[in-house]
Automatic annotation (TrEMBL):
Biological source species: Vitis vinifera (Grape)
Membrane topology: Multi-pass membrane protein
GO biological process: transmembrane transport
Protein name according to UniProt: GPT1
GO MF assignments: antiporter activity; phosphoglycerate transmembrane transporter activity; triose-phosphate transmembrane transporter activity
């Protein structure tokens, strides 16, 4: 019996971990194998994926199956005060850890965005810079695996097959965002990208037939209205830049949907999952980058950039590539620790830090009405997060 519970707990832990890759799905229903007597089917349990190590299952089983006997080592509310202190400390340590993940994620993202824009200003070839960021990340991870700095993931053909649509969507979203940033201010791209929840709801509603509470639909009004206000009042509006950010939003919604379907039951860590995604995206993107831009344009553009900036231009390219991988890696690692909801709030906070820092660094002209549009859109994403709770 206890053995069965242990098995169920560990299978739940595997499922719960894979759930973290599903950035936008806060609560899951799991059908568990029978744990009592091995015959009666257990009702689907509704579990929030953030519940740490999955011990919430024990409590749920106690409520629904009171005949299950609890051994001393199992979670028990009547544990001595000392273990409450230990529990409190580990909770506090976890919060500090998550705080560190968030701070690192935002800081790396700000640095990436600044170097990315500096590179694109001097060398406007977004297909190559997108490819280089994926190539650098892939190389870093292949070296880490070869030198055993990171554990090599155990993958099979089925894993790569399910990763393929995720990688296609990741590639499109990445290139589209970079094309956007090559045409408009970084802040504008990120204001439009803050509209991603609206795409998520619309795709889920009209393509997948999912329904949401009315409050979720209402939260889309400030998101869409704020983005629209920011777009029409943007001083340096460019249609390719605008469409690039919109396509990126749509692609990332599909990336989340595909990873939700594809990663169920897999137990690859967040870091390795992102590494595999980078490798596959690199293979997909390279031929398209050559076809759209190509070595001749790159060579001429590179010479031009180096003559303008100097030989240290290569370090800007290296910085944007390395920081792109690092911020994504940390964001996927933090998914191992937090719920999709906390993740989406963190992502919105990240956009605020990018928008503000890029406006300061690049002296981006902003009209008050434009800033108001951005603020409304960001507020809308917070309301959306709350409504989804
Ligand atoms: C990219 O290049 O992939 C985008 O800048 C990603 O943007 P996001 O991670 O902030 O959505």
């Amino acid at each position: 019996m206890i053995c069965s519970i242990k098995q169920s707990v560990s299978s739940l832990q595997a499922l719960t971990r894979s759930d973290f890759y599903q950035r936008k799905s806060p609560v899951k229903s799991l059908s568990l194998p029978s744990v009592v007597g091995g015959t009666s089917p257990v009702k689907p349990l509704h579990l929030a994926p953030v519940r740490g190590l999955g011990f919430g299952l024990i409590e749920d089983l106690r409520v629904r199956r009171p005949l299950i006997r609890c051994e001393a080592y199992e979670a028990d509310r009547s544990e001595p005060v000392e273990s409450d202190v230990v529990k409190g400390r580990s909770e506090a340590a976890k919060k500090v850890k998550i705080g560190l993940y968030f701070a690192t994620w935002w800081a790396l993202n700000v640095v990436f965005n600044i170097y990315n824009k500096k590179v694109l200003n001097a060398f406007p070839y977004p297909w190559l810079t997108s490819t280089l960021s994926l190539a650098t990340g892939s190389l870093m991870m292949l070296i880490s695996w070869a030198t055993r700095i990171a554990e090599t993931p155990k993958t099979d053909f089925a894993f790569w097959k399910t990763l393929f649509p995720v990688a296609v969507a990741h590639t499109i979203g990445h290139v589209a965002a970079t094309v956007s940033m090559s045409k408009v201010a970084v802040s504008f791209t990120h204001i439009i990208k803050s509209g991603e929840p609206a795409f998520s709801v619309l795709v889920s509603r009209f393509l997948l037939g999912e329904s949401f509470p009315t409050s979720v639909y209402f939260s889309l009004i400030p998101i869409i209205g704020g983005c629209a206000l920011a777009a029409v009042t943007e001083l340096n509006f460019n249609m390719i830049g605008f469409m690039g950010a919109m396509i990126s939003n749509l692609a990332f919604v599909f990336r989340n949907i595909f990873s939700k379907r594809g990663m169920k039951g897999k137990s690859v860590s967040g870091m390795n999952y992102y590494a595999c995604l980078s490798i596959m995206s690199l293979l997909i993107l390279t031929p398209f980058a050559i076809a759209v831009e190509g070595p001749q344009m790159w060579a001429a553009g590179w010479q031009n950039a180096v003559s303008q900036i100097g030989p240290h231009f290569v370090w800007w390219v290296a910085a944007q590539s390395v920081f792109y991988h690092l911020y994504n890696q940390v964001s996927y690692m933090s998914l191992d620790e937090i719920s999709p909801l906390t993740f989406s709030i963190g992502n919105t906070m990240k956009r605020i830090s990018v928008i503000v820092s890029s406006i300061i660094i690049f002296h981006t002209p902003v009209q008050p009405i434009n800033a108001l549009g951005a603020a409304i859109a960001i507020l809308g994403t917070f309301l959306y997060s709350q409504a989804k709770q």
